[in-house]
């Protein structure tokens, strides 16, 4: 902790958002659009071109509550032109070995229309979301952004937090939002620890062309090592395209990352069980470790912890960023209900209590699911197959699972 210096530039805001990733940008837009004077800082400018080094090649399927939040804060009209609607989710169970085609044992499809007369979600490339959000943020009243400047230190007291930034600026804020990732410096400065589970897995993220159309159906193909997920994108240069997340053991993922493109194309075509015809790499490949990480607490004096600073989940079932936006929606609701109490202990205790149960439940389910689907043992493979059939074929179970995916668990 450090105290402010008298000769430094001083700013006073309602909300300071630390972190300029997707969650941080949406948080800044949300609080600014809701009438709170907001400053967002991040030491690194966003990469907004898909072919640039460091570009985030993952995609995010935003579910209906996320869309509702975007409409509420006035950014859906900016994002919607780049959205690919997701009409259904197809889950396919397969068996096979590396180098051989996957054999389909069973498949089921979950239709979005069962829970509403609209798609269950909309898919976006992450780098494209960053580009559009970076462009719209300066147009939102009450909102300032500072890229190239990050969080340095913090002193909190009952009425406000005093934050020193890396450029020496000092910011007095009623609420500091830690949206600065799994290694969050704000969370650490607030004295909040984390519990981390490692699986020995990594995921590859990339875009692929494929021969057969996806028909706006997201497809998760399960086999040992983890799922191979193809999420629909708009056609690229007249060719069918999807965003892929491919989970594997760490060593296998690194081998695939470094594999020559022709061999990689063959490997992913085999892993996809030929459901989309031949697959062809359409971008460079990114690689990410698979962990579950949960913050010990979601709030401290004048600090709210959200998104990956609060929870990191394996990329299964579109839970990651959608859970993050559930955090933001809860925090924003509380702030708008009692603006005079912004960032006080009662508000933050209410936020932490409201979000803890939902986050813990989702983390538990995703963790157990990942352990089952990545296993190569016969017993767990049988459990995976039986579970798929039960979740889909028993209507109350199917409806419960689909509703849980569309909002906080109850």
TrEMBL record:
GO molecular function: FAD binding; monooxygenase activity; oxidoreductase activity, acting on paired donors, with incorporation or reduction of molecular oxygen
Matching SUPFAM superfamilies: FAD/NAD(P)-binding domain
Keyword Oxidoreductase: yes
Keyword Transit peptide carried by entry: no
Highest taxon of the lineage: Bacteria
GO process terms (BP): ubiquinone biosynthetic process
Keywords noted in UniProt: FAD, Flavoprotein, Monooxygenase, Oxidoreductase
UniProt pathway annotation: Cofactor biosynthesis; ubiquinone biosynthesis
Cofactor: FAD
Pfam families in UniProt: FAD_binding_3
Family: Belongs to the UbiH/COQ6 family.
Protein name: 2-octaprenyl-6-methoxyphenol hydroxylase
Annotated source species: Celeribacter marinus
